[in-house]
Amino acid sequence: MSKTNDPSGYKLISIDDLDEYRGRGYLFEHIKTACQIYHVHNDDEENLFSFNFRTPPSNSSGVAHILEHSVLCGSKKFPVKDPFLSMMKGSVNTFLNAMTYPDKTLYPAASVLEKDFFNLMDVYGDAVFFPNLNEEVFRQEGHRLEWDDQGNLVRTGIVYNEMKGNYSSQEGIASEWSIRSLFPDNPYGVDSGGEPESIPTLSYEQFVNFHKTWYHPSNCKIFLYGNIPSEKILSFLDDRFLSEFDKKQIDSSVAIQKTWSAPRTLEKTWPLGEGDSSEGKSTISMNWKIFAADDPVRSLSMSILTEMLMGNAGAPLYKALLESGLGEDLSPVSGVDFDLNEAVFTVALRGTDPSKAESFRDLVFAALTELSQAGFDDVLKESCMRLVEFRAREVKGGGPFGIRLLRKIMKGWNYDRNPGASLRFAPVMEEVREKAKTKGYFESILKQWILENPHWTLVTVKPDKQMAKKQEAALKEELKILQDSMSREERKILDEKNESLKIFQESEDEGGVPFLQRSDIPVKVNSLAYESSELGPARLLKQGVFTNGILYNDMAFSLSHLDENLYPFLPLFTKLLSGTGLPGVGYEVITRDLSMKTGGFGVSVEAGHKVGDGALDKPESFLYIRLKMLEGQRQEALDLALSLLLHADFDNHTRLEQILVELWNDLKSSLIPGGHSYVILRSNSRFSSSALLEDRMFGIAQLQFLESLVGQKHRIVEVASLMKEIRSQIFALSNLTLSLTMDDSVLVESGTVMAEFWKNNLPSKPSGESIGSSLPQDLALSTPAVPLSQAEGLGIPASVGFVGKALRGASLQDKKASSQILLSHLLKTGPLWEKIRMKGGAYGAFSLHSGLDQVFTFATYRDPEVENSLDAFKESLQEFSEFQDEGELEKSLISVVGKEMKPQSPSEKSIIVLKRHLYQISDELRQKKRDDLMNCRASDLQEACRDLLDHWDEDSVTVMSHSDKLDKASARWPGLKEFRIDLPQ
């Protein structure tokens, strides 16, 4: 706020000092409509807005979700068919999305340019308040009937197909019912996203009425964040949107669920693939409805208690479940959820048998009762409080900081609580710390809200091999009956509606959506200043930036000397480094020490190519250690990290087996929600040796490797010995590049101490010799070769699929790379979106170019028509081979350059500097790429299309889908049957 008086048309309700965010919070109310606006005003140039509506559904037809998709498909001021897509083309937005929750729908967007911010707000505001919502949009985004090539009725729709994918995932179903099972009497008892069986019951009239009911300023809360003056934004909101409405009485509150006097049980199923080795493996959860999230101290205390109970494998409840033998590991469904008007606490075990539900229940209660009586260890309490404090203090990356605050503020503001109260952390933490001094504080919370709380459910989600077939058979029968009953007039009406939709989808937009101009984006790239020097045989990088008192110690150890047979073991190795103990010290103690003495200790691996690497068959690979700490933790954090690198206990065979199973389960559960990532990696691996390595570490090859290893107890000793050999080959100064990032004020002193610590304590050279070539045959990974121009099929029990197709692309140094980057953006925001998403009903379709791997890739996400998508890839390129629209090219340029303008957090800056150094991405090269982008013309795009089309049949295709769809498509792509892998679930 630049002035103290109320902006015109608003009254200022309150002002909050938000020192933690270096700003103030201003709560306004729009006088004419009672719309509330909360602005966190500070000096952050990445401004964000979000229009937020309470939207409680009354059934599982998915109306809130379908509407979320649809309002951004044309509005009064911008009557184009897809303003959202248009904004993706000509904006430098750093965030652009919409999200449906069980009781609210959020429409956030962010940008680093003020002009762009107001452009986005203009489109979003008009979309949510004045959408066109024509029937064609409803049928496109929601559900519709069509005729297939054989003249049979089929059902499709973007949300319909998205939710079919969601209900094919065990973890998705377990997560859904961990909430719904507790709230049978209010909107949380239904699925706001939509059940596939219920979505077709939604009528167009109900869809339109849902918007009329809830999308009004009187039911809207608008969140603002950043450095633009409040009155400037408020004036814009009033002038463009709010002034056209009057106050309206709307009761969108969600009734509090009546507390039960006794717990309840529930069983659900998930579709298991044919021949899947996971038969019998279920997820069992215990779920408690606890308290209204209206007391920040109580909520934070519950978060800390959850961390104490199961924040890591060494936490007492987590450990008890792992060691019980009842299941394989803790399900990611576990935790506490504050996104509803009453919080939910869940403990879930996966990889178990349905018959063990009661044993699981008894074990959980026994473990919690013992903890409540014996009390929590003081070190455990302190370590968890420190961990929670560190997370709150760190300026995280991965998205606009305003999004982080939006998620926090809506936990209270959505239920009419003071918005500022949800944002404050320091005073709340101080009060929790004071209360925690009282003996039995956390124990009393555990006793009151869990042990003595009768409102809980025991939910079992078990596999069913016949489920997918039954669902498909039932759908076919339903559609056949419907088709047989249709009169000639009804068929005519359906044909007319589908023709109208086709005309709508193929119509050309006349413009109207505001765009930036080429002159609005910078010609020069941003650079990160750092010092580079030798550290014995290692390399040291140092940079000083504001980190809020956190020291970042990032280490990259080269793996280029490792035998390729060892790469499949590296994911297990990285999880063991941070998940096991030390000789004589159990892993539960180490996990507590990591929370006490550090702000985080992470381990990961990566493969890639250096710039200008002519030998694409020789990738670079690195193992990264990410250590975060406060200044006062420096020495104890370094000592602990060193101990883990050099002495992690690989001889705890029980723990090694637990981590192996956890790794296996995590990979399996990610297949369906993340199928696009797997098909992209798999397709790219036949062009790029670094992608081949990453497939062995993170992809389908890793899945096959783990499947062969899990359950082989007789090999655990051998694997443990292998872990020691791998360690001896990695952790040496000669393999190390060290990146240190911290506040300028401590860079000289702390940076010197930390650099010298590693120089003095790590071996100069590796002590081990390569043993990969001497591995036993059944421990060595062999990846069957799929020839270029042959497709590969990956079978999953899901009615939607994922398609990946890779072609050889241009090198990052080549001027053609810029043309292919722009082409990939134009394709995914143009013909791919229209053909595969709008017409085909897939949730997503995109293309991307990797200059380091020299690969150009097409992919789809939750795709019901995999054959059509493969055709659409080529058709889209053919359309662009005659591309001449310089205006569209400029929009693409703006968007591509805009991604490079995104502000970076201190944590991101540290790792960016490290990776640019490792892969030799200089500022000079980055500037050349920017210059090439700025000078790109339509003729360059035509040439890029021709290059790709000339080598179209020298491709690599991977399709992940149901076996029936793979069989059908194999008539044209025989490899989908010849090179078939049925994936475990």
Automatic annotation (TrEMBL):
<protein>
    <submittedName>
        <fullName>Peptidase M16</fullName>
    </submittedName>
</protein>
<dbReference type="Pfam" id="PF00675">
    <property type="entry name" value="Peptidase_M16"/>
</dbReference>
<dbReference type="InterPro" id="IPR055130">
    <property type="entry name" value="PreP_C"/>
</dbReference>
<dbReference type="GO" id="GO:0004222">
    <property type="term" value="F:metalloendopeptidase activity"/>
</dbReference>
<dbReference type="InterPro" id="IPR013578">
    <property type="entry name" value="Peptidase_M16C_assoc"/>
</dbReference>
<dbReference type="InterPro" id="IPR011765">
    <property type="entry name" value="Pept_M16_N"/>
</dbReference>
<dbReference type="Pfam" id="PF22516">
    <property type="entry name" value="PreP_C"/>
</dbReference>
<dbReference type="InterPro" id="IPR011249">
    <property type="entry name" value="Metalloenz_LuxS/M16"/>
</dbReference>
<dbReference type="Pfam" id="PF08367">
    <property type="entry name" value="M16C_assoc"/>
</dbReference>
<keyword id="KW-0175">Coiled coil</keyword>
<feature type="coiled-coil region">
    <location>
        <begin position="465"/>
        <end position="499"/>
    </location>
</feature>
<dbReference type="InterPro" id="IPR007863">
    <property type="entry name" value="Peptidase_M16_C"/>
</dbReference>
<dbReference type="Pfam" id="PF05193">
    <property type="entry name" value="Peptidase_M16_C"/>
</dbReference>
<feature type="domain" description="Peptidase M16C associated">
    <location>
        <begin position="461"/>
        <end position="709"/>
    </location>
</feature>
<dbReference type="GO" id="GO:0046872">
    <property type="term" value="F:metal ion binding"/>
</dbReference>
<dbReference type="GO" id="GO:0016485">
    <property type="term" value="P:protein processing"/>
</dbReference>
